[in-house]
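We modelled the chain as a single entity of 314 amino acids. Its sequence is:
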Amino acid sequence: MNILTFDVEEWFHLLDFDATRTEEEWGKYEVRIYENVDRILDILERTNTKATFFIIGWIAKTYPDVVKKIAAKYQIGTHTMNHQLVWQQSQQEFRDDVESSVKLLQDITSLPVECFRAPGFSIRESEAWAFDILADLGIKYDCSIFPAHHAHGGMSSYGAPVPSLIKHNDVTMKEFPVTTKTVMGKKIIFSGGGYFRLVPYPLLKSWSAECANGFRNHMVPRIWHDKKGNMMIGNDGLPVTREVGYLLSYIHPRDLDGGQPMLEGLPMKRKFKSYVGTKGAAEKLRKYLKDFKFTDIKTAAENICWEKVPIVEL
């Protein structure tokens, strides 16, 4: 079960960089969202690939035509209104931010917004209250968990990097965590963002194949259908399932933009992380989507037997 997602941001939407942190600065920079989204849509069309797009509300407010173009064919979710880390906000600030983005995206597309991803995978154990708010706002699927320590958050207690049911208070949320690979005892991301750009393709392909084929703990119970497409039910009254692998990839439009300007004032380490591999990333993604078949969150969720996934109590 391979899932492809995009975080729809402008090229300057970097975390931990004060010069581009808030909306007050964003109007100063070159607009590249049109060509960058068109590049993605062209790749998806040519490879016949489904995907889910997590869109920043500011993008929707500023460029509603971009959102309409995406939503005409692909599932959309929210990436918050103003791209701020969850743990930097109060509960009310977080609610107001997500609620405004959900309402705006639904008004523009006339479609329900049921998926959420936090910037920087920034929901930690201490921000479990976010799931209560998300559920109250109509979110059914969360994609915010990095199941290990992470610079912007991380949830080490999550367990295996596979879909689960997160339970907090009276809320149950269906979770699609980012895929990780254990290297020298440390969990790392490899299938998204700067990691996707940095990892050499043979290694990216090898590690992705391990997860997609169900290597070790990358397994999810997929509902089994007969030749006519009917769901098969077992003696226990639950759908018949088979264990399949799990791979989730996430890409930003800027990851594929080899011509974007260099932001002034970035530390050397951040320049490397933000720009390495951008020139060849679009072709790398084309090759990736030819080597692996991906789908969107909606389709994946419909094919998972949620009664058999792990439960994460927070």
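As a brief sanity check on the tokenised model: The longest strand covers residues 2-8. The radius of gyration is 19 Å.
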